[in-house]
Amino acid sequence: MSDRPADRLKANKSLIVILGPTGVGKTDVGIELADHFGTDIISADSRQFYREMKTGTAVPSDEQLARVRHHFVRFISVKEYFSASLFERAVISLLPTLFKAGDMAIMTGGSGLYIDAVCRGIDDIPDTDPAVRKKYNEKYKAEGIESLRKELKTVDPVSYSRVDLRNHKRIIRALEVYGTTGLPYSGFLANKPAERNFRIIKLGLNRSRAELYSRINSRVDEMLVQGLEEEAWSLRSLRELSALRCVGYSEFFDFFDGLTTREKTVELIKRNSRHYAKRQLTWWSRDSEIKWFHPDKVQEMISFITEAEGNKPW
Q1: Could you give the CA distance from residue 8 to residue 156 in angstroms, rounded to a whole number?
Q2: Helix axes 84-101, 112-120, angle to 10 degrees
């Protein structure tokens, strides 16, 4: 084995990634594992970054936050710009400090792009003009997703062939990069994994579809009891911000505009949350590095991590 410092660090330090769909139980599992191994938790749930969004993002409770130290939970305002590339830089800067306290750190969350940014690196995509983003969001509202698809196919056929054509946010992202720089979004993507001087161990959490969907529905009901509607109402003037274009808030904004009933709004939040969970699982289905567990099998996860740690190339 090489004697380079980077190689020695990689042999000694590990980032344990706990991922899975919304509502599966990542928070509880992450806390149990962090408690057992005596480490902090890095949150990789992009919706939990924002101070103003608490109820609708299922942030850990005050008791959970007191039990284990969390990083990147409610640390910025919805008015501040943040991205997967900025998250990558922040986490990579934080990890040496965490590794001084122990041999591992735990990162848990459901935002696939942000997890991949830390694990694989992310290409240096330029910041885009908010006016361009607004233009395409208005185009989507006025003309629908098909008009966005047609424009992307014209200006950036490579991105068109790669992007999820059902996801208007991904299409708009590619278009706004082109609209800002005059260069295709695909031209900024090197697709070359970054070198990391620590090991990465990925644990995925999943349940049967019926069990997961039941938990999602119940969690939405609990959010409503805790004040999701009131929270969305307090943020309605900021609805055009990208941070607020997510499940739980978007549906209530339409309700406030009189576009739907409250009963239908709740139904849509549950449905869209289930659809989001399905998209998350699709994202990770291509990652062969993930070892999947039922969330109740914490002891099996501990054994898996302990065995993986024991196999380090000291």
Answers
A1: 43
A2: 60
Q: How many CA atoms lie within 13 A of 132 on its CB side?
A: 14
User: What pTM was computed for the model?
Assistant: 0.80
* Percent of the chain predicted with pLDDT > 90: 72
Q: What percent of the chain has pLDDT over 70?
A: 93
DSSP 186: G
How many helices and strands in the chain, by DSSP H and E? 14, 6
**Could you tell me which of 216, 203, 206 has the C-alpha nearest to residue 291?**
203
User: Which residues does 128 contact at the CB level (< 8 Å), separation at least 6?
Assistant: 176, 177, 179, 180
CA distance 203 to 81: 30
Is the separation of the CB atoms in 26 and 205 below 8 Å? yes
> Each residue of 217-261: pLDDT tens digit?
999 999 999 999 999 999 999 998 888 989 999 999 999 999 999
Q: Count other Cβ atoms within 10 Å, centred on residue 296.
A: 12
CA distances from 199 to 9, 44, 279, 309 (A): 9, 18, 27, 9
Pairing of strands 14-19, 104-109: parallel
Task: Please tell me the distance from the alpha carbon of residue 196 to that of residue 142, in angstroms, as a whole number.
Answer: 44
Q: Please, are residues 136 and 148 in contact by the beta-carbon 8 Å criterion?
A: yes
